Amino acid sequence: MNENVKLLDHPLLQHKLTLLRDKNTGSKDFRELVKEIAMLMGYEVTRNLPLKETTIETPICKTTSNVISGKTLAIVPILRAGLGMVDGMLSLLPTAKVGHIGLYRNEETLQPVEYYCKLPKDIEQRTVIITEPMLATGGSIVAAVSLLKSYGVKNIKIMCLVTSKPGIEEVSANHPDVQIFTTAIDEKLNDIGYITPGLGDAGDRIFGTK
Predict the structure, then answer these.
(1) What gap in Å lies between CA 12 and CA 182, rounded to an integer?
(2) Catalytic position from the list 105, 127, 131, 183
(3) Active-site residue, 31 included
């Protein structure tokens, strides 16, 4: 497997992913599961955040200990499905800035179309975590990474619930420097570009629009 692809196989993640895949899981439970999975994934995604020493005073004595260093993080969901993962990440990282990138997939060409972008002013100084439940064809994520790089972002991580092998290959071919974190790598896409077996349209299932 590509060294930049991190498959997270913790039993809790795998259990919750199975519930997500189940077509009988309703929108309320689906939203809660997405939030929980994002929070659990966030532990691994942020494993290599930079630290610095600081001096504190415990009830016993003064000591040195570590805190996260600098302007470190921004969470950038790809609208709209990526929004479902933001709350879970903010549970871990309440001071992180949040940007938004709006992309939709042209259902005929399967190519991404950008319609919105709002990012923190200091985005180039931050490690950016893109949240997107599904990495299918890879087109939207490739476009989002390219957009972030155009703003000067140097350190980008992608956080997906489910990925496809073709999607991983597409992202890796265009952005080999970007890490992908996922709980599942599915074999293929169907004839309309959906991950198979996948979990359906994540946005529709999160927001109950289908």
Answers:
(1) 14
(2) 105
(3) no
Q: Which strand (E) or helix (H) includes residue 38?
A: helix 27-45
Is 191 one of the catalytic residues?
A: no
C-alpha 164/C-alpha 161 separation (Å) is: 11
Provide the 10 A C-beta neighbour count for residue 91: 13
Known active-site residue 201: yes
Question: In angstroms, rounded to a whole number, what is the distance separating the alpha carbons of residues 157 and 155?
Answer: 7
| pLDDT tens per residue across span 120-156 | 999 999 999 999 999 998 989 999 999 999 999 999 9
CA–CA distances in Å: residue 109 to residues 92, 105, 112, 165, 193 = 38, 8, 9, 20, 10
The DSSP H or E segment spanning 130 is strand 127-131
Task: Based on the residue annotation, tell me whether 209 is a catalytic residue of this protein.
Answer: no
The answer to whether 35 and 85 are in contact (CB under 8 A) is yes
Q: Which of 109, 163, 182, 196 is catalytic?
A: 109
DSSP string, 91-110: HH-TT-EE-EEEEEE-TTT-
Q: What percent of the chain has pLDDT over 90?
A: 77
The catalytic residue among 21, 31, 80, 201 is 201
- For residue 8, which phi and psi values (nearest 5 degrees)? -95, 110
